[in-house]
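B., you asked whether I could sanity-check this one before it goes into the benchmark set. Here's the sequence:
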Amino acid sequence: MVAADWFFDFVSPFSYLACERLPLLAPAIRVRYRPVLFAALLDANGHKGPAEIAAKRLFTYRFVVWQARRWGIPLKFPHEHPFNPLPLLRLAIACDCRPDAVQRIFRFVWRDGRLPDLPIEWAELAHDLAVDDATARIASPEVKEALRRNTDEAIARGAFGVPTLAIGDALFFGADAMEMARDYAAAGCRFDDPEYGRVAALPEGVRRHAAKPPSRPRTRVVGEAG
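And here's what the prediction gave me:
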């Protein structure tokens, strides 16, 4: 059996779609659930999030809806997006990142279209997960540090977005990379077509200059890992 780390953030609808499709990897791949802060991955790679580019935001939301319908996965966007995912990420860690707990949180947000931004919503989710004194639990130094470690490891391993499935040094990005990861595991965790090796070694012909800084400040919804 192949071991894999699955890096995800609850703010990502693609992470939700991937979570619903993870059973496709069994029994060949054993998945360890690793919540990370997507905003930190963006910052580490100098990227904008999909919701920070107006046209990309619209396409992304429509594509998520289309993809969910195509795969038969129930989907309802919450009342705002992006939202601060930190409480949910820490809640997953407080639940020891159990697959059933992670799936329940994802479905709370992306199947039921809810956010724990009201005390009654938060209390219901914590009750469903059997987490006593959830607000205090997610504020513990141990939980915060675990999220930092996960995020730092994802960055160190080259993750540039979520969801990312990491099998050793190989990264499989996106909800639609499950079949590729499964084929990779079936091939003995190697890319056995010579073309894979050739494209990995292609030289850069042209490098784009860094974009000029924006002329006016832009607002960004970003949670902090601390």
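One thing to flag: The domain at 2-200 is CATH 3.40.30.10 (Glutaredoxin). Otherwise nothing jumped out at me.
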